Amino acid sequence: MVMMMRLLIVSVLVAAVVGVNVTYDHRAVVIDGRRRVLVSGSIHYPRSTPDMWPGLIQKSKDGGLDVIETYVFWNLHEPVRNQYDFEGRKDLVKFIKLVADADLFVHLRIGPYVCAEWNYGGFPLWLHFIPGIVLRTDNEPFKAEMKRFTAKIVNMMKGENLYASQGGPIILSQIENEYGNIDSSYGPAAKSYIKWAASMATSLDTGVPWVMCQQRDAPNPIIDTCNGFYCDGYKPNAENKPTMWTENWTGWFLSFGGAVPYRPSEDIAFAVARFYQRGGTFQNYYMYHGGTNFGRTTGGPFIATSYDYDAPLDEYGAPRQPKWGHLKDLHKAIKLCEDVLVATDPTTTSLGQNLEVSVYKTSSTCAAFLANFDTQKDATVNYNGNSYRLPAWSVSILPDCKNVVYNTAKINSVTTIRRFVATSFKDGLSDSKAISSEWSYVSEPVGISSNDAFNRPGLVEQINTTADQSDYLWYSISADIKGNEPFLHDGYQTTLHVKSLGHVLHLFINGQLVGSAIGNAGHPGFTKDISVVLKSGNNKIDLLSLTVGLQNYGAFFDKTGAGITGPVELEGLTNGSTVDLSSQRWTYQIGLEGESLGLNTGGSSLWVSGSPKIQPLTWYKTSFDAPSGDNPIAIDFTGMGKGEAWVNGQSIGRYWPSYIAPSGGCSACSYKGPYSSSKCLKNCGKPSQKLYHVPRSWLKPSGNVLVLFEEIGGDPTQISFTTQELESLCAQVSESHSLPVEAWSQDNTTRKSHTKPKPRILLECPHPNQVISLIKFASFGTPQGKCGSFSHGYCRSPNALSIIQKACIGSRTCNIEVSTAAFGDPCIGVVKSLVVEASCA
């Protein structure tokens, strides 16, 4: 009996690790002998928290994804050489296992260079100090480190049986990242490096295919893939490789000092449909959830703390509607065509100027894509004996080569308006929107305060000096001014001329802040002339140089320096002379005194209670209770300047609400025509970012500690906690909308009935404990406007509001047919729409 039990246990263990075979051919990734059409989305595990991961993964699955893609962040996991960290937000294995629990696949992009708007492109800075190293080229010291870390990750995955070949979810891995964009700068060594990287990766024997994105010369068996806003024209470099799109940019990243980019839902749907229309079978959204750059993880420089990316799941994890729902409907339509898409190559025929049809056909199945890629003109086309209306810049999908189930320009999904609402706190006998009225503060010393300070002749480069252990480096010097200088008298002044590689500079004269200089995302370096007032005798000049994330992209990006390079000159002295201070002896201090004392945790006996002093270089601390409920939380930093914030010792990132975006560039944006990162912008003339995510898992019910370090002077009593609230839930569907995807049967070939079903509106409160509490607006006819500002048109049914109220109030969901049978016909011969705006409680 014991022997039988042992045999049974062994057989169960063997069954548990039985893997699947993942290969590829010219049409698709092949999983266990079956070609697959795959939809993927990027979620970077450290840009959210472990308690958020299950919800993000489930919403991705609900949105129609098959695969979750993530980079692996080398500098996060090995901050010190041979000292690894895979805890908390860094728990890569836990994240991948949660994806597996949801029955989704994983694409693991090891890199280990990742770009990703991540500090130093994901490389640990200690690489920079290895003798003889040159990053990302045929250099032995670099290759040894790259191989060691790549093998570390692969062996970790193998040890947890996470590759598909072992029964796990990982079906693809990536080595290097977008090297083809910059490899020409590295000369002939680039080609030998890529061959080495491919050979090194495949030698690790993962049992799954490897890819290289943006690498046209990727050697076999590596699959070369496309990144960009559009990849429908991409062809891999060998006939036996499938067409894959590893980064479809759902929006763009935000930079401090810039407006907020967004990408219209219709355009991204158009790009995806065109990709599958023209032969693609694997597409990944970058990002599907962008998340937050906690701590000092941002790169750039000047990348903001928010990495929302206008993704289908917003920074806080909520579906961004209508984008999430519109893409979900697209994925359903694509999946209806899967069998025929992978069975054959498309035949594409022109139907006129900027019009074409691509047909996938076998002896038993047929699917068609009708495309109008004109940027302005709608068109009517004839295909397969039928007439179809195609809006400009749109694709219609016909899973049976007859009926349109989806058009990229026609949104059936709901639209939501989510707003952050200030949370009230009890403050004595009244309610206050401020986080607290009780603050403590510590003044950070100006200039040199550390025993570890050191002297050097001349100006030092910042990154080589700080090794990025802090954003801050003090440059300090004294200047002796004689009493006969003309600027000591009224009507005269002197100027300090400073040249810096960036990113930010604060100038203090005799302990007082007299001026600042700021670079920007495109040009972090600057030259600045600052008028200064000096006194007779000794004057203390302190320059605080700051980094705002290290360079993460470009050839030899690791050679890009920071800090004050000089010259540093005093101008306007006797007879107009100039004194160059650059080569004199300076005193340097890495970091702040408060950093070395651990003030960010709220500890130390130095805190002074009382009304906070509004002055530069000040640490602030308060305690607070967590906002009630379970909605996402953000701090509104209105009133503050620039600095960093910590909640219970964990950094929520750099804040900089005083950096205002340019006032121009936010004009109306049409989805029609090619998208670029500067095409569609919002929040012009406003702070680039004023709301900063505070994960609920970082909070206790009470007794939480908030610490701020403010550089330039801000009023912490103005900041407030806000919670994300659903303000409105809207839907708009026309009588003429395409045949709903849900009307098709599970065999993907026939409809459930021979009667064409009517379009319908589906409203659903996002939280399972909520119901529709109010119908704010309802109109059947020719309504105008958009969610939050609808109005009735010249044609309207008088019964629409009462019908919707009866159907929806008190229910979490309601499903309404859009037809004259339901609402009457207020204007015969006119195509009518139903519009509803509701709220949930």
Question: How would you portray this structure in words?
Answer:
- The protein is of the alpha+beta class.
- The protein has four domains: 21-318, Glycosidases (TIM Barrel, Alpha-Beta Barrel), CATH 3.20.20; 424-444 and 596-626 and 632-718, Jelly Rolls, CATH 2.60.120; 454-590, Jelly Rolls (Sandwich); 726-840, Sandwich (Jelly Rolls), CATH 2.60.120.
- It is built from 13 helices and 46 strands.
- The strands form eleven sheets. Strands 4-5-6-7-8-9-10-12 form an eight-stranded parallel beta barrel, surrounded by four helices. Strands 20, 36, 40, 42, 44 and 46 form a six-stranded antiparallel β-sheet that branches.
- Helix 7 (265-277) packs parallel to helix 8 (323-336).
SSE layout and pairing:
Elements: H1 2-16, E1 22-24, E2 29-31, E3 34-36, E4 38-43, H2 53-62, E5 67-71, H3 74-77, H4 92-101, E6 105-111, H5 140-159, E7 170-175, H6 189-203, E8 210-213, E9 223-228, E10 244-249, E11 260-261, H7 265-277, E12 282-289, H8 323-336, H9 338-343, E13 347-352, E14 355-361, E15 366-372, E16 379-383, E17 386-390, E18 394-398, E19 406-407, E20 415-422, E21 425-427, E22 430-432, E23 440-443, E24 454-457, H10 462-466, E25 472-481, E26 494-500, E27 504-509, E28 512-518, E29 526-532, E30 537-546, E31 564-571, E32 578-580, E33 585-590, H11 593-596, E34 608-609, E35 618-624, E36 633-636, E37 643-647, E38 650-655, E39 681-682, E40 691-694, E41 704-710, E42 720-734, E43 760-764, E44 772-781, H12 800-808, E45 813-817, H13 820-823, E46 833-840
Helix pairs in contact: 7-8
